[in-house]
Amino acid sequence: MSTLSTKPRILLVDDDTDILLALSDYLLQEGFEVDSVGTGGAALQKSSTSSYDIVLLDVGLPDRDGIEVLNELSQTHPHLPVILLTAFTSLRRTAHPDILEKAFAYLTKPYQRQEVKSAIHRACLARNIAIAGWQSSFAPTQSIATFPSLLQPSSTGASLHDATQHPLNLTAYEQLAEYAQLMQFAFDHVPNGIMVADSDKRLRFANQAACDSLGYTQEELKTLRIPDIAPYHDNEKFQQRLESLRKGQPLSYPSIHRTKNGQEFPIEISVYLLNFQGQEFTCAVTRPAVEKSPKA
């Protein structure tokens, strides 16, 4: 897999040769590696034989509906962000929400250069987070404020068709929503379970991996407390562990979780203490317990 520090590899899929050449030339100038194809079938073939960091996918292809290609890519390459390219400004209103959720983002033709570049950088970051999993040097110690220069699009961007500068006109709310989409995408593609609980032990956030392992939806988990999923939860030990966290000591230990249907399974859990707007939260990163091989 490529990283932002090397050269992200992009698969560009569009049947319009003029757009294909213009966008490909621009991305090459920006330091990306680009493979270009003009059909959905060629895109699926390329993705099966080569590794990519991002797919820029036109919705209107001659052989396959771009949405169908998106569906197949999301199944065969779940960690691969797909940015839809569309000439239809009504796509968000007409396409099924479940389909749009499979795309990382979509751009409406004619594209603006900075808009394209910004979307690619955000998608690369999300992919790197999703593939690498939760790194101890990331969220527990780093503030969200460290990323905006990379994540937030510039206030202006040049059109691929001319050198005129055009404002993106993204409001602060849209930028915040865009950032939230990125974080949700990243956390939902991390292979380990991530859950955040408040000081009353009520679950406030759970990513998709946590939901899948426990058999709950995200909304269902938000109605539960830690003891509901950890049947052997010991409050006294929990308070002792909190004190250790407050002293800056790392905390990892084996535990047992219980699914919605009552099945218990062993896990390894790492806990971090978060202070947000004057409130204390615990963030648990869980993974299946590794079975020890019997000694010979």
UniProtKB/TrEMBL annotation:
- Keyword Phosphoprotein present in the record's keywords: the answer is yes
Write down which residues bear the modification named 4-aspartylphosphate: 58
What InterPro entries would the database entry show? CheY-like_superfamily, PAS, PAS-like_dom_sf, Sig_transdc_resp-reg_receiver, WalR-like
Q: Which GO terms describe its molecular function?
A: phosphorelay response regulator activity; transcription cis-regulatory region binding
The record places domain Response regulatory at: 9-124
Q: Per the database record, which ranges form the PAS domain?
A: 179-249
Under SMART domains, the record lists:
PAS, REC
| Keyword Iron listed | no
Task: Give the Pfam families listed for this entry.
Answer: PAS_9, Response_reg
Q: Which GO terms describe its biological process?
A: regulation of DNA-templated transcription
GO CC field: cytosol; protein-DNA complex
What protein name does the entry list? Response regulator
